[in-house]
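Subject: complex prediction, re-run

Hi both,

The earlier run crashed halfway through, so I resubmitted it with identical inputs.
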Amino acid sequence: MKLYTSILFGLFFATIQAQENFTLSGYVMDASSGESLWGVNIIVGTNQGTITNDYGFYSITLKKGTYTVEFSSLGFKTITKKIVINGNVKLNFEMEEDTAALDEVVITSSKASRNLKSTEMSVISIKPAIMKKLPTGLGEVDLVKSIQLLPGVSSVSEGSSGFNVRGGSADQNLVLLDEATIYNASHLLGFFSVFNADAVKDVKLYKGAIPATFGGRLSSVLDIKQREGNTKEFNGELGLGLISSRALIEGPIGKGKNDEGKGSYLLAGRRSYIDVFAPLIDDFKDTKLFFYDVNLKANYDLNDKNHLFLSGYFGRDSFEIDKVFGNTYGNGSATLRWTSELSDKLFFQTSAIYSDYEYQVDVLTSGSEFRWKSNIENYNFKPRLSYFISSGNTLRIGADFTYYNFNPGEISALNNSSTTAQDFQDKKALEIASYVDFENKISDKLSLQYGIRLSNFSRLGNETITQYANGSPLTYNPTLDTFEENAVIGRTNFDSGSGIENFNNIEPRASARYLWNNTTSLKASYNRNYQYLHLISNSTSATPLDIWTPSGPYLKPQYSDQFALGYFKTLKNKAYDFSVEAYYKDLRDVTDFVDGADLLFQKNIETQIVQGKGRAYGLELQLNKNYGKLTGWASYTLAKSERQVTGINNNTYYPSNNDQTHELSIVGVYKLNDRWDFGANFVYGSGKPVTYPTGKFEQNGLIVADYEGRNSNRLPAFHRLDLSATLNPKKGKNGKWIFSIGNVYNKQNAATIFFRERVNEVNDVNIPTGKTEASKFSFLGIVPSVTYEFKF
Amino acid sequence: MRVLIQILKNFACISLIIITVSCETDITDDISLASSPPKLVINGGLERSVNTPLSSQEFRLTTTNNFLSDDPNPIISDAIVSITDGTTVWGFNHQGNGVYSNSDITLQLTKNYTITIDWNGDTYKGSDTLNEVPKFDDFFAVFEEGTIFSPEGYFLKFNSTDPINVKNYYYNRLFRNGEFLISPDPGNSQNLITSDEFFDGKQRTNVDINGEINFQLGETATGQQLGISKNYFDYLFELFTQTGNTGISFGGNPPPATIRSNVINTTIPSNRAVGFFYVVDIEEKSLLIEE
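This time it finished cleanly. Structure:
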């Protein structure tokens, strides 16, 4: 704590050297909807600048004088203004949407210059307007799938909305929707992500150089912001698709200045209707399968300087087979945020957040009907103070308090079955992190961003902890190369609120940008991250039955160190920009599972988990074309990701499940005329690691495979092409058609290759034949789709 | 009860079929697999049955071969095999086709039996314990309509009372006209084996012997409830999980790994054996399927 305070004070004293300086500050809004705009580039003169924060606020300190100030942002007309600074100036700006530009520009020049000049690296951002132009594999605009087209991000499997960042596993991504943690970001077994593109304002993915303001996961932060709603007028939108339909309404709240609302609201919903067609197929007449989600956002200006935001999400998936099985799962979250401009240099924000993920399974087989329920809840409080010291120098300090309650499961009998009711112990934890993050401009050429995050994680009672012989639930037996469970030697009860285990860690973060010349910059970054939650799932992809479990007496926090170097270049007056990034990531205490782990309904999960280390490194290249009728990008990733875990693969490094050597994406959007836009993506990826059998034997009347090692084989490489066409309405008309064809040449990419005993079907019963076979499973052949959208 | 993942897998298949054009292709002829050097396979164990006592105890020894080979597993005819309960040693002789047998051994409850196999210069040892199985309180067949998970026909069911305060592990086996039947079904790890974790000391009713396999009129149906050890339960759980794998990556698809045998090569431990040497207690009943 002492170290922390002295750093803080040091920074303050170093920077509070009052000169004859004045502050230009204010908010930047969208002229049509009145929504605040974040990430707007503000360039003053030739070498000073800043960007608006998450709430559209900016502040820049300037010497007395007259300046040319330029405001630019993706999809908006650039504003250039002469401003005389002879005192503190407060100016709010409204930026007009550049409809022409929006159609033509995939990645605008403002982003190119941002890439060049910001200290940020390893960051991807994508706007919903762009996502909507890209072809969709399954006819639904999908935020996560759009991100998978960028370097360093791969899909857990074709068509899946699970993603891996730089060789990290899928549970190492922190997914935030308006600051609330989303624990399972997929609908329908991962084919769709839970984010409704209509309600999303902005998406940013940090693959590395994660600032100290974020923490809790090793590999990435996916920061999603919902739209706030139109403060000027009521608007409605309907989208009708083959898989789901969606609706959105937005409008002003109250009456403010210039006839505008003092606030606004937005309500959006989606529902799939696959289940409507299911009864048409005889086999599925007793089957129900659907998802829905609702997004809500509202904001209200208390006065010029104080704003309130309320944001919520609720989504559920439901699946039911009459008299056999039922499953529902989903996330819910609510965020209440207050932002306050304490002075023209001090900006304060604080959020109170609730987030919940739960699932429920009903097994309705006769005689043993039961219901299984599990959930994870967290309460979160995040205050932050931003101090805009001077141009290029911003200090952020803040804290994250999170209280978790994990309910690993409770079982109750249904229909008076003989199943005994059981309630597994809840696990409780408190995570407190405090941070300082400093953007520091050393010279026109060199800018730094550095900070430190101090994280503390405590497991709290009420809970009974099992004590094992040898102090550990598992002991590795090197002779047999297997883990043996240790005997239970006792149980210790911890009272409510008492500490069971406590972890304190320091997470340094730093990045630097050196502007070589007007078109070239070099960047470097280092960051250490700790992760206190572990996903208990031994499937390679996300399943609705995933359970999160906290670090504790037998489970250490995971941590990683990542180093990255980058080269950024703009070409032909920013018409093109090019970047190369190289990274090396060292992962420690990552979780894996003992061979044959039994994870579900597992009371003593610590007996199934082993921890090991990993390393991942790679090279990412990206070329963007920013202007013209044809825009888009090409990206290529060369990467390797390995794990080493005692008891697996003879204790030597093996390729991690998400190791993908080559990955290539080519994305293009072509504007033919005012009415027609066309989009295309081509994706190529080398095969992911798999384990093939090395022998067979007979046991219990069945043929069983024998294996050596892990992940020593590869699936075949995959590639696919998706196309889309958008027919925009005539001037003054309404209604837009979006046609899309996923996997145009119907490439049957292998999702899995599996090996099994051949069976003969006799009287509806599969009888084993004693012969074996290899089978390839592919999904997502050619999928045409159409969506109709109109506003009201 | 153990794991619903298998059900979930079916769920995955169904939702896939509904939402996408999914496709499965046989690629047996397009793929070649590496083989590890042949390993010793033990298939079988010792079985105590009070209702229908066995005249001799037997099991089979073979070696592994390439997974995609159409040849049966090569038999082992030259192993020296014995089993001991700690005091008496019984020799098992090769009877042909890899089968080793002994007709002198009488199994006793709660005893631990150790097998020793000398083969190819290595010595293998493994042991298991005989746990008593409770009786059927009732044993009957019921006609059921088909669902998407099970066919239509007569199904064998039983009621049985679990002994209280004892950890019990069960395995159900089914025979049609005397022939053992099993299907490599995703539900096996949940339906064929179970522990009393959630019903200790209670009576279970209408339990399917094997809900995947139906009977027609006139057939003789035999059902067995086996009392097995925890080790054998864990082994079967992995075995049924792997053999029931439908190959779809969601719904829980553990990375495949060799299933650890309880028979250990004591000469060179890394030269593993596969299969499980089990000792089980059997409750068996038969009936003729009639209207």
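Residues 1-21 of chain B have pLDDT under 50 and may be disordered.

- K.
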